[in-house]
Amino acid sequence: MARAYSISIPRTARYYAVGGESGDPREVWFVLHGYGQLADEFLHEFEGVASADRRIVAPEGLSRFYLANGSGPVGASWMTRLGREEEIDDYVRFLDSVYANLFGSLGPEASVHVLGFSQGVATAFRWAALGVSRIDRLTLWAGGVPPDVDLAACRPRLAGLPLTLVAGTRDRTIDEAGLQRETRRLVDAALPHRVVRFDGGHRLDSETLARLAEAP
Predict the structure, then answer these.
(1) CA dihedral 37, 46, 203, 122 (to 10 degrees)
(2) d(CA 76, CA 96)
């Protein structure tokens, strides 16, 4: 039977940003897209909350692919089930690198808000739990905490981190029962959180984004 081998290689990755024209923004949001999306298109959803003092940064998943029939529109993914441990390590290092690259030119006092949508929820949570970057707020939108993450082991990184779960009332990806399972798991792990709902399905919502932007 063939044996698999792994090597680490340098590669080029990209991210997009909007806002922060003040040069020293008071807030930086890292927003992580869902499966099959691209960072620049995803970033459009946040233009309403970007400002001179709030920079929105959208890293792009490291695996891009044609969405259908081997041609046409392209999307990106954060990981698949194949080589999942290596892909998790890769994207955590990538996000830490984006953070370091950005904060190399920004004041350290800027607060950091990480928001993951759909597949980006697991990515955001793992980054908060496994990465080295300072994160001040975490929002999980239309997705759940990765079931394989040991919350007790991650408590030192997550304790005291304001955590928000957002879900549409008609989201089939995370329905009412699924949302209750997520909240019970967080309660059992002694991780305080709040739940925000909006009328809609598996999507972002501009009014809810505005509410998050207004929150302290």
Answers:
(1) 60
(2) 19
Q: CA distances (Å), 15 to each of 32, 93, 101, 118, 123, in order?
A: 10, 14, 11, 18, 15
Q: Which of 30, 147, 37, 51 is nearest to 99 (CA)?
A: 30
Between strands 71-77 and 63-68, the pairing is antiparallel
> In degrees to the nearest 10, what's the CA dihedral of 210, 61, 57, 147?
50
pLDDT of residue 121: 97
One-letter amino acid at 157 equals R
Cα separation of 167 and 180, whole Å? 11
Q: How confident is the model over 150-177, as pLDDT tens digits? A: 998 888 889 889 999 999 999 999 989 9
66 has which bridge partners?
74
> What CATH number belongs to 15-214?
3.40.50.1820
Give the pLDDT confidence of 17-55 residue by residue, as tens digits: 999 988 889 999 999 999 999 999 999 999 999 999 999
The two structure tokens encoding residue 155 = 């408590």
Residue 64 · residue 75 · CB < 8 Å? yes
Q: What span, in angstroms and rounded, lies between the C-alpha atoms of 54 and 188?
A: 34
What does DSSP assign to residue 37?
Answer: B
